[in-house]
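Troubleshooting log. The previous run stalled partway through. Resubmitting the same two chains, unchanged.
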Amino acid sequence: MIILKQKPFEELLRELEGETNVFLAGCADCATTCKVGGEEEIDALEKKLTEHGKTVTGKHIFDTACLAGSVRDGVKQHKEAIEAADSILVMACGTGVQSIGDQLEDKQVHPGAESLFVGEVARLGKYAEKCTLCNDCVLELTDGICPVTRCSKGLVNGPCGGYSEEGKCEVDPDKDCAWVLIYKRLQKRGHLHKMKEIRPPHGYSSHHHPRSYQWEKRRPPKKEPAAP
Amino acid sequence: MADYEVKLPSLGDDSDAPSEATVSFFYVEVGERIEKEAPLAEMVTDKASFDVPCPVTGTVKRLAAQEEEVVEVGGLLAVVETDES
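Second attempt completed without errors. Output:
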C-alpha cells in the first residue's frame, strides 16, 4: 500500500490561491485506507474549503486513481463539474495526481497529499515501510525480513556492529536492528546457515527512473502460408 | 459479399464496468480469413484481458484501431467482408 499523509490545510489553500472553483478527487484505495482521500475526508475538505470562500464544483472518489482506465471513466462521468473548476485538488498519491492530470491537459491539478512510502498497515494510523521495491529481492535469504529497507544502512551481509545490547539500531535507537531480527528468526527456524551466505553488493542499477514494466504479449505465432 | 463492422462489445452491466479497453494485439491481419467465433483481437482493461470473437466468417478488410489504442465500448475494431451476399 502507498502510505500517505494529507498536506496541512494552509498548504492546500496556498496551492489554490487565486482560484475560486475547485473539483475534489479522492481515491478508494490507499488514500481511503490512510484517511486522506476517502469519502469522509473529501466531504470534510469540501466543508472547510467552502468556509474559506471556495466553491466545490464537484467531487469524485476514483476507484483507484492510479488505474488510467478508471480515471478516464471517472473524468467522463464528471466532465461538466471538472470543466467548471479552475483546478482539481487530488487527495491521492503522486501517481494518482499525475494519472488524473494526464487526462486533463488543460486543467491545473494540485497534490493534496504527501506520498510517504510503500508500507504495511499495522493498524489504522500506524504504518511501517517494509519494502523499497528494489527489484533485487533478498527476502529468501533473510527468511522474510528486508535489510535493504529495515536496516538504516541497508546492509545485506549482516549487522554493522553498532547495534545495542537490546538489539536496537545505532542510527535510530527506537528501531530494531534488522539484522538482529533476521538472526533471531533464522535461529528459530533452524536456518542460521543462511547467515554464512555472502550476498553480492546490492544491485541498484534498475533504480534508474522512470521505471516501467510491461508484460510480454501472448501473441500467437505467425501462421505458415498455405502451400500452393 | 457484405462488409461487417466488428465493434467492441459492452464490458458489463454494472455502473462501474469499464467503458473502454485497449487493443493489445490483433490475431489476424488484413486480407486474412477468419471464422465465426474465432478471436479477432485481445483487449485489455486496467485489470483484465479478454478476446473479442469475430461474429461472422469472412476476410479481414480493415483493422480500424492500432495496437495500444484505447477503444470505447461500441467503437470500431475491424471490418470483415463476409461470405454472405
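Takeaways: The two ends of chain B are 4 Å apart (CA to CA). Chain B touches chain A through 14 residues (CB under 8 Å).
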